[in-house]
């Protein structure tokens, strides 16, 4: 778990540095921060989305995951949490905008830090063979992105360290069991869906199109499942002469 703890620490330190810079950035230059973080997020999202081994799996995961997320109103729940956390732990005057920014910072940072294959593969390697190198590299990358995101969204990014701890801690502790089940194809599909979610975030940061990204989070569960079922379904249809 050492590498996961270190990852959380880099996120917290990066977020604090971003908050310090945020207070010194003139409003006229805030657009530069949003544009920079949006473009970098798009680049990361595209590179991850292209790792999919099946665009059909990617499409069905996003569509069905979105249906489930909208039915469960996941985005609204996250924003409500942001409002609660801002009022409980925030300082000074509370507004709907500040609560929304807190929640968006928490959501966007959590998706960015946990959606990539590095989070899953690195955690599994750390838990099974004690190889921390991949997670250490990811930690530095996350710390740098935390600076940019917290400068754009505020203190909500710090709260994402808790998600990193739970998410990567789970794969670290259960890596020996999960790795043979997910296999490389399942991890790739999970990463590809994460890339699409990052594209949604990037478009929002660039003020091109606002998506309710939180409502698509179930897709990250569906993608590995579809990856596991796909070979069996394909083999069955082929045996029936329907494929």
From TrEMBL:
Q: Which residues cross the membrane?
A: 5-22, 28-48, 55-72, 102-124, 145-170, 190-208, 215-233
Q: Which Pfam families match?
A: DUF554
Q: Name one GO biological process term.
A: monoatomic ion transmembrane transport
Q: Which InterPro entries does the record match to this protein?
A: DUF554 (IPR007563)
Alphabetical UniProt keywords: Ion channel, Ion transport, Membrane, Transmembrane, Transmembrane helix, Transport
- Keyword NAD listed? The answer is no
The molecule here is called: Uncharacterized membrane protein, possible Na+ channel or pump
């Amino acid at each position: 778990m050492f590498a996961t703890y270190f990852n959380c620490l880099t996120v917290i330190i990066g977020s604090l540095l971003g908050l310090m810079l945020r207070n010194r950035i003139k409003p006229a230059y805030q657009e530069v921060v949003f544009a920079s973080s949006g473009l970098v997020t798009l680049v990361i999202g595209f590179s991850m989305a292209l790792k999919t081994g099946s665009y059909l799996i990617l499409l069905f995961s996003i569509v069905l995951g979105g249906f489930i997320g909208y039915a469960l109103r996941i985005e609204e729940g996250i924003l409500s949490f942001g409002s609660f956390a801002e009022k409980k732990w925030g300082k000074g005057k509370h507004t709907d905008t500040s609560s929304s920014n807190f929640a968006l910072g928490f959501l966007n940072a959590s998706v960015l830090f946990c959606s990539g294959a590095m989070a899953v593969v690195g955690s599994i390697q750390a838990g099974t063979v004690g190889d921390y190198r991949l997670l250490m590299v990811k930690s530095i990358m996350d710390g740098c992105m935390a600076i940019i995101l917290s400068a754009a969204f505020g203190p909500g990014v710090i709260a994402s360290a808790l998600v990193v701890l739970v998410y990567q801690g789970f794969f670290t502790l259960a890596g020996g069991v999960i790795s043979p089940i997910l296999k490389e194809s399942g991890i790739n599909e999970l990463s590809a869906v994460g890339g699409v979610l990052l594209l949604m975030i990037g478009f929002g940061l660039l003020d091109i199109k606002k998506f309710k990204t939180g409502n698509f989070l179930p897709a990250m569960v569906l993608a590995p499942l579809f990856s596991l079922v796909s070979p069996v379904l394909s083999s069955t249809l082929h045996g029936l002469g329907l494929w």
